[in-house]
Design goal:
Blueprint (H helix, E strand, L loop, with lengths): L16 E8 L2 E8 L7 E5 L7 H11 L9 E6 L4 E5 L8 H9 L5 E7 L5 E8 H10 L4 E4 L1 H12 L6 E7 L2 E8 L2 E9 L3 H14 L8 E6 L1 H11 L5 E4 L17 H9 L2
């Protein structure tokens, strides 16, 4: 499957780019930028045919696009999965990560349990990745760095809440899934993801979580990000109940942003917080 990549990326200048391969069940995206260079950001999304396995789809993308073989400054695989759990660093044991993830979320067959330290926080995030996909990626990209999609957002949100008096609650809206994370003075107090079928489901999960963590309707702050049209719709309802609600901007001051497609908020935050 051929992807229309920016003509600016060549074998001669590719080593200046930080690149991101974002994987989820429904598709694949390829993003990148040159640090500090205005308008260098690009983002391309492709979706597999329904009659092709995800593994064959990835191989097809890799072998039919020559730029996938170029050298780069960094190559980061962003893994989108709802099967994850957070473990305090002081009780984490590497040898027990398989059993721990299985106990907390259940695991799929032929998976590899991945672990990642959450930047600036005392947590390890465990998540699963298909073992065949993992093996293909490490063979294809020798220096690939694997990242759970929540990790850059958790880092930025942690930093934002360090000096804030009220609680900060973040709701990231994706297609059929919302991710909710809460912070108080920089401390993570909640994180989980929920599948939804319609906006009523989404609102139910958001309000239920806010109630459970003791969200103050008049003082605490609620932030929404993700799919723009859904955010704008649900924020109208939430504003009738909560005093401080903000729709987070997708503006990328340094790099610009492509106007032809929606860029996931985790990719946007990666350009801000680094790796």
């Amino acid at each position: 499957m051929k992807i229309l990549f920016p003509s600016d990326i060549t074998a001669e200048n590719s080593e200046r780019y930080d690149l991101f391969l974002r994987l989820w069940k429904g598709g694949f995206s390829f993003s990148g930028f040159i640090s500090g260079e205005k308008d260098s950001f690009f983002h391309k999304t492709v979706f597999p045919d329904s009659n092709v396995s995800y593994m064959d789809f990835l191989k097809n993308v890799f072998f039919e696009n020559e730029c996938m073989k170029y050298s780069c400054k960094s190559l980061n695989v962003v893994c989108v999965t709802e099967k994850y759990t957070m473990v305090p660093e002081d009780v984490y044991m590497e040898k027990s990560k398989e059993e721990l993830l299985s106990f907390c979320t259940g695991t799929s067959e032929n998976h590899k349990t991945m672990s990642q330290h959450i930047k600036n926080q005392n947590y390890i995030i465990l998540y699963e990745l298909d073992s065949k996909i993992y093996e293909f990626l490490v063979r294809s990209f020798i220096s690939a760095n694997f990242i759970h999609f929540l990790s850059p957002m958790l880092d930025v949100w942690h930093q934002n809440s360090l000096t804030a008096y009220p609680k900060h609650i973040y709701v990231n809206i994706r297609k059929e899934v919302i991710d909710i994370a809460g912070f108080e003075h920089g401390d993570l107090i909640f994180v989980n993801s929920f599948r939804y079928e319609n906006e009523n489901d989404l609102l139910y999960f958001a309000v239920y979580v806010l109630k459970q963590i003791g969200f103050n309707q008049l003082e605490d702050e609620l932030f929404l990000c993700g799919e723009t049209s859904v955010c704008k719709s649900v924020i109208k309802v939430l504003k009738t109940y909560f005093e401080h609600i903000t729709l987070l901007s997708k503006k990328m001051e340094k790099y610009g942003i492509p106007l032809d497609e929606e860029v996931p908020y985790d990719i946007i935050t990666l350009t801000k917080c680094g790796l």
